[in-house]
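Project outcomes to date are best conveyed with an example. Our students and postdoctoral researchers have been running inverse folding experiments weekly, and each run begins with a structure described purely in tokens. The record below, which covers 183 residues, was selected by the lab manager from last quarter's runs and is presented without edits.
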């Protein structure tokens, strides 16, 4: 029986852990996240109208990674935009929010983009070409709701062109990818 080993980097409280296993160890979602570890579903993402259900994490994402525009001026505008989005709702839900750093990072398939052909060699391309997402930002980073412990004016941001986490000060420009569930 042939098995594939998956290397997946997880960012947990600022420390990068690498593990090799037959299951994908992804962080549990929500405010009280603790250890994770689930088998990767055969079809991880399921399209549902303008939303995508992640069967690995249980989170629901907007199908468009640029649902709210390519560039949000700052974190406060990002939060306001999601609040306004919740007035009308999307896919029948009105509880959308910014993802935390672990939730957003769970979208990155490190194994796929590091070892793939040029058409899937970034997290953004892999998400658009194999997972059913559209309009994933590659020119700006994505906001998360996670504040950096070392500087309360900075949030963790994720770059979908190279899967690198960085900090973004609260006045910086970044994309917004709303999520729901996981609490």
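After processing, the design step wrote out the following sequence:
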């Amino acid at each position: 029986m042939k098995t594939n080993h998956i290397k997946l980097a997880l960012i947990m409280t600022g420390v990068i852990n690498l593990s090799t296993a037959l299951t994908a160890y992804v962080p549990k979602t929500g405010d009280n996240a603790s250890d994770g570890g689930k088998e990767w579903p055969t079809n991880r993402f399921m399209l549902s109208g303008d939303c995508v259900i992640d069967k690995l994490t249980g989170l629901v994402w907007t199908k468009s990674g640029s649902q709210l525009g390519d560039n949000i001026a700052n974190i406060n505008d990002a939060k306001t935009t999601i609040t306004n989005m919740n007035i009308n709702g999307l896919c029948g839900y009105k509880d959308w929010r910014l993802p935390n750093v672990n939730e957003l990072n769970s979208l990155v398939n490190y194994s796929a983009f590091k070892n793939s052909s040029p058409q899937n060699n970034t997290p953004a391309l892999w998400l658009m070409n194999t997972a059913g997402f559209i309009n994933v930002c590659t020119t700006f980073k994505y906001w998360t709701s996670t504040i950096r412990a070392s500087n309360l004016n900075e949030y963790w941001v994720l770059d979908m062109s190279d899967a690198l986490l960085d900090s973004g000060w609260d006045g910086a420009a970044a994309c917004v990818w709303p999520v729901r569930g996981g609490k």
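DSSP finds four helices and nine strands in the chain. Helices lie at 75-88, 101-105, 110-114, 123-130. The training component of this project remains on track.
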